Amino acid sequence: MPPLSPSVSEVLSKRLHEAREDLLATLRSRTDAPDDEAPAIAPLAHQGQSDDAPQSDMLSDIEQHLADHESALLHEIDIAIGKLESGGAGICEACGQDIPEDRLLATPTVRLCIACQEQLEKDRHTGRGPSM
Ligand SMILES: [Zn+2]
């Protein structure tokens, strides 16, 4: 028997697919922009390729970081969609308990129940130093 009511499952599926589309559009627009944005006349084209400006390195680092973050999020969304389709959504990955529907609706990609999430965060804080 599926742990989620059909209506909740439907809402989650819709939200996840929308989030996925948004994310893909963002990623696509970022990677395609230089080529696709101004294909006709490009008066600024020569400026875009100015020789090694120190700022462009920093910018691409930030963009890379953002891209990593988005890829990770996309991965989470894919997992959540897969679980939704296979009937595994709404079950805590750590302890197997049902995840409250409210929690899922608030965060469709959530994979742990509240207790396990708190435990994980506690472990993260005590186990290692501050991240970054
Ligand atoms: Zn749990």
UniProtKB/TrEMBL annotation:
Residue ranges of the region described as Disordered: 27-56
Molecular function, one GO term: zinc ion binding
Zinc finger (dksA C4-type): 92-116
Transmembrane domains' residue ranges: none
Organism domain of life: Bacteria
Organism: Massilia yuzhufengensis
Protein name: Transcriptional regulator, TraR/DksA family
Keyword Zinc-finger applies: yes
